[in-house]
Design brief:
Number of helices: 15
Shape: globular
Bound molecules: S-adenosylmethionine, iron/sulfur cluster
CATH superfamily of the largest domain: tm_1862 like domain
Structural class: alpha/beta
């Protein structure tokens, strides 16, 4: 077994310049095939395991500001009419789904993301809940979470959260330094954010997450530290610290960001390292590669017991086999594959208006995909994959022979690794603590579709 040594992170960054997926799914979104979704959706609905709880993700692709760094699927509008119009189609999509569902499944978790679902008015939140309740059974412990842009906050928003029954709120911060905020077109004071957090607590929302970013233009480790100290003062239960993904070939408005102001790979690495230490010193547990949670938080407990999962929102405690994605661009997941709704809002609305579910892309999982997906998810969540445990989980004849291949891949990966990013011993591939920042690089070793030369993802760190 290799002895733990300090990682020469400069050498790793110099060697691994290519972008790497974030592995919020495997296969990753570029592998989804246009037009393959409807047939898969049919199967998903037909084979829905009776009695199993399900999760639902709803996408609201509207914002009343357009932050230049934003990589989300959203559209800027200062009027409510387009949002109101969209909600009518969303309601219709829910009705179409209900006609196809053989049962009324229990709802384990509901997440509203965007865009800024915090723009929805109280009556629309109440109507949305009523529509969903026709199709899914809300339970007393159904987790209902929502992404909030603090600049949307007003009395109506809080009433709306109560009407929907929100139990967990995720607030976008990004960075508090005025120069950084100017460079990304996102003014937002600490005081404004703090008021929102206090009010959310007052109305009984028990769990609060804050999103911050590193790698932003004009950001330095000092400025990031200051932002983090303010986030800690907000007493968030969880924090997500994402590396800014600069993908201007895909998100044209990111061209408004001055690339000369962006920290280089080494600075990004130093920011992420500093942030990890700083938040852990403040009492947060590190969860996976980019989340932090207070010890009492369900994410911390799940990470300790090996029950952490990864989905399109990042790390989660949600272990449902089935996730329905509603709204333009939403992705659904079931045991046999992924399906994605039409991305363009106009096309999504036209399809629903014609009485068809708006599923477009899809990918069916082969047995090889399923096992690789499991290996990658465990590496991203636990930083190790144990082949004894894998053999118990995948014990069929074909599975066993595939596992031999993955074990060989794992031993080869460790043998060829010149930087100490992973090691193989006791039938287990593990990523040492000091190499966790490079977990995506190790995980990409099991990605059968990943081609380093042509990859167009975000930076590896
Ligand atoms: C839908 S937004 C959050 C809710 C709300 N719209 C807001 O901005 O406050 C989801 C999160 O994605 C993250 N995000 C957006 N664009 C990103 C990018 N280019 N790279 C990394 N993270 C990004 C941000 O941290 C953001 O808070
Ligand atoms: S970061 Fe949030 S508010 Fe800003 S454009 Fe993206 S989704 Fe909208």
């Amino acid at each position: 077994m290799k002895q733990p040594t300090a990682i020469d992170h400069k050498a790793v960054l110099a060697t691994h310049k290519a972008s790497v997926p974030r592995y919020t799914s495997y296969p990753t979104a570029p592998q989804f095939q246009a037009g393959a979704g409807p047939a898969l959706m049919d199967r998903m609905l037909r084979d829905l395991p009776a009695g199993d709880p399900v999760s639902v993700y709803i996408h609201i692709p509207f914002c009343d500001r357009l932050c230049w760094f934003c990589g989300c699927h959203t559209r800027h509008t200062l009027k409510y009419a387009p949002i109101k119009g969209y909600l009518a189609y969303l309601s219709q999509e829910i009705r179409l789904l209900s006609q196809r569902l053989p049962v009324r499944p229990r709802l384990k978790s509901l997440h509203l993301g965007g865009g800024s679902p915090s723009l929805l008015k109280q009556q629309d939140m109440a109507d949305l809940r009523a529509d969903l309740a026709e199709v899914f059974q809300f339970e007393p412990d159904t987790e209902i979470s929502i992404e909030i842009d603090p600049s949307d906050a007003n009395d109506e928003m809080y009433d709306g959260l109560l009407a929907l029954g929100v139990t967990r709120a995720s607030i976008g911060v990004q960075d508090f330094h005025p120069d950084v905020q100017a460079a990304i077109n996102r003014p937002q004071s600490f005081e404004q954010t703090q008021k929102v957090v206090q009010r959310l607590r007052q109305i009984g929302i028990g769990s609060i997450n804050v999103d911050a970013l590193y790698g932003l233009p004009l950001q330095s480790t000092d400025r990031l530290r200051d932002t983090l100290s303010k986030c800690i003062a907000l007493e968030a239960d969880r924090m997500a610290l994402f590396g800014y993904a600069h993908i201007p070939w895909f998100k044209k408005h990111q061209r408004l960001i001055n690339e000369a102001d962006l920290p280089d790979n080494l600075m990004r690495f130093e920011q992420a390292e500093m942030a990890g230490h700083y938040l852990q010193d403040a009492g947060y547990h590190a969860i996976g590669i980019d989340h932090f949670a207070k010890p009492h938080d369900a994410l911390s407990l799940a990470a300790q017991s090996g029950n952490l999962h990864r989905n399109f929102q990042g790390y989660t405690t949600d272990n449902c086999k089935t996730l329905f994605g509603l709204g333009a661009s939403s992705i659904g997941r079931f045991e046999g594959g992924y399906v994605q709704n039409l991305v363009a809002t106009g096309q999504y609305q036209d399809c629903v208006a014609n009485g068809r579910l708006p599923t477009d892309k899809g990918v069916e999982l082969s047995l090889d995909d399923k096992i690789r997906a499991h290996i990658i998810e465990r590496l991203m969540c636990d930083f190790r994959i144990c082949f004894d445990t894998l053999e118990q989980r995948f014990s069929g004849r074909q599975e066993k022979s595939l596992l031999q291949g993955y074990r060989q891949e794992a031993t080869k990966l460790a043998a060829q690794d010149q930087f100490g990013l992973c090691q193989f011993s006791d039938n287990m591939l593990s990523i040492p603590r000091e190499a966790r920042a490079f977990t995506r690089i190790v995980a990409s070793g099991f990605d059968a579709y990943y081609h380093r030369e042509t990859a167009q993802y975000s930076k590896a760190v």
